[in-house]
Amino acid sequence: MVKPLNGACVLLVEDEALIAMNVEELCREHGAVDVVTIDSFESLQADLLDARKISSAILDIKISEQWTDEFAKLLQTRRIPFIFASGYAANHTVFEPFAGIRVVEKPYRESDLIEALVAAIAAPDALEQEESPPN
């Protein structure tokens, strides 16, 4: 049986250790072959995208008391599908530059998180459509 994250290398940006462990296990149960967990803002560097073949990401909007929105913009630039998993409400102003990127609010159901990530992976042209004017 093919699992929805079959073969994925997921970047997980989460500074709460228990949440990170649960999400890593959840991703692996759904077929991810690797989960790279970043738990501090200082470790959130662009070169980790070059060092690993990151295929998708789950990003908390704030770790180590620092906003991760610039890194999210880097993910968009590199066309790496991602979602936010955050304690901030989806209508928070920090998410305004990320129209079309799903925000899964904590606490969330595991199925909602996986469903959102799978949808992001399945729609890689979503970023291109946002940047291109309609015909």
From TrEMBL:
It comes from Nitratireductor indicus C115. Transmembrane segments: none annotated. It comes from the Bacteria. Residues 9-121 form the Response regulatory domain. GO terms for biological process: phosphorelay signal transduction system. This is Response regulator receiver protein. InterPro entries: CheY-like_superfamily (IPR011006), Sig_transdc_resp-reg_receiver (IPR001789). Keywords: Phosphoprotein. SMART domains: REC. The modification 4-aspartylphosphate is found at residue 60.
